[in-house]
Hints:
By secondary structure, this protein is of the alpha+beta class. A hairpin with a 2-residue loop joins strand 7 (94-99) and strand 8. 30% of the residues lie in helices and 32% in strands.
Amino acid sequence: MTCARDDLASALGIVARALSSRSAVQVLTGIHLQAEGGKLTVAATDMEVSLRASVGGEIAGDGAVVVPGRLLADLVRLLPDPSVALTFNEGDGVLEVISGSYASKVNVFSAEDFPRLPSLDVSLHTIDAPALLGTIDKVARAASRDESRPVLTGILVRFEGDKLTMAATDSYRLSVKETTLGESGPELDAIIPARALQELARLAAGAETVSLGVHENHVLLGVGDVWLTSRRIDGQFPNYNQLLPESFEAEVTTPRAPLLEVVRRASVMAQRNSPLRLRFAEGELSVSAQTQDVGEARESLGIEYAGEPIEIGFNPDFLRDGLEAVARDTVQLRLINPLRPVVPHHADPARGLSAGDAAAGGLAVRELTLRDFRSYAGLELELEPGVVLVSGPNGAGKTNLLEALHVGTQGFSPRARTDAQMVRFGTESGRVRVSGKRASTPFSADVVLNAASSRRATLNGSWLQAPEQLRHELQTLVFTPDRLAVVKGGPATRRAYVDRSLGRIFPSRAQLPAEYAAVIGQRNAALRRVQASLSSRDAVAPWTEGAARLGTALAEARREAVELLARAFAECSERLGLFEATLAYDGEPATSEELEQRLELDLERGTTGLGPHLHDLRLEAGGRELRSYGSQGEQRIAVLALVLAEARTLAERTGATPLVLLDDVLSELDEERRLALSELIAAGGQTVVTTTSATALPSSPAQSLLVRPGEVRVA
């Protein structure tokens, strides 16, 4: 082939942006060259995003080859002559590049090893490019870069008639934009990687239209002769309607440009994760920042505000991004209180997803496959939605079956600490594979266990960085007799329970417990350094402020989660015969002033003595604390009611029921309570119950399974 150097360099420069930089698969670092029908197509992919472009020229013969991508792009760009000739003979295994007096031979990869890209033969819709790119620009910066939570690295894209809605969140900020198009778009409701849409924005700059096609697992976007395909991210996007405040304490309208300039200047002093503080007082907005050992800054603006003073701390980058996204000359800040979101309002109101839109139905496992897991050498089992009753004698493997469902949907065991405990005795590895539906979306998860190395997992064929990532995508709740520690154990066990529930109920705040724990760890380390005369007291101050700020946010989130659970907990407890049951969060956050007041005591002990890391969850019945004064039966009912209450709360908030696993839950319930339990679980989603008697459940299950050592059959 002979073509213009600049045309080839331009095409290679475009597709090289899709080259994989971290893959262990060498062929993904290459650019695929295919000569066919008198045209050369160049393509690259990292298995998530692919780019294709065409190059015209004089071509003799058809064929395909994969060439090291960065090398070829750099080489062609530096060639001396305006034209370049490429020659490839399959038997030689090299690509010859000639340009003027320059000649080289490049080793290549086999084209047969290059992934097959989605077909371009699909129904296409024409979308107004400025409207599409403008929407991407408004929301893309709010998407997460944390690959451990893949759903949040994407942008929700929804076409409804002539309306396009995009939403993105990194769990700290949320951006939603609705755009009216000139004509109807395709039927599309998908999560698309933010980087794919940002790449489209770069490619389509200045274009009038973008072509859009939809595959089952991919979307296809075209600009001229360049085509971008992107994998759709599997998972359920957070119900952002729940994150948008319904009411506000105050609204402030101010010119955007002066406020943005003040924020930019003050942000210079907001280093090392220091917040940018905005104080709203009568007629004045003060913006300030302070970083230990760096300096401080303060600047004021005149505003129309007449309410009670409110001071709010911000991540300076997030606030700046939000203000920069405003297209109008003025911005309206809607305020609630110092710990709740601020909404920079500057466009038509965005309508959120209703619970019914977010998910219809819930999580249901339809197929379970086991290989060398616990007592099962091999098992292939089909499960029905609804209540599944698993019966069999003690020691037959009923709990192992429930454990496998938990491992397959959550990536870890509720009772084993190591993989060696789960792998069948005498073998080195095991496997748990589940498939089914989340609402109306099919899913499959595969967890590989190894007694000698780390556990691995895939979701819908894609490897996860950590198996525990499954818990962010598939919601499963479990009751086992060991869970009585939530009532009988110490405060740390109950705090851990509340934090797990918090993450499921408020996904956007799931990282708060870990962030707070990290700050407390840093403050404790600073206290011990001062104690050992290795540092000054000034080193403690930034961590004191962070502990107060994050501790307040965590305590509020926990309290909100517990308040949501409390009503359902009381109702479920009463149905199960535990009357006047209450659930309450016990503890108040520590302010910076309170932490400073006890600094001497904290220095003496080398640990922080105030804050949510010392709080508790209070479970009572009839005014009696169940931990100290509840019977074994009452404690079991309380833990069971907690599980059922959370399942109900999740269903009410998201419209999707979790998978519920109940192990040996009937053994200590009388006939009346068994009937109540059967009525409660019949109203939910898929629930798997184990028992020694096939007649222990008063109502008829959707499916009854009989377990014998190493095998399971439909009863």
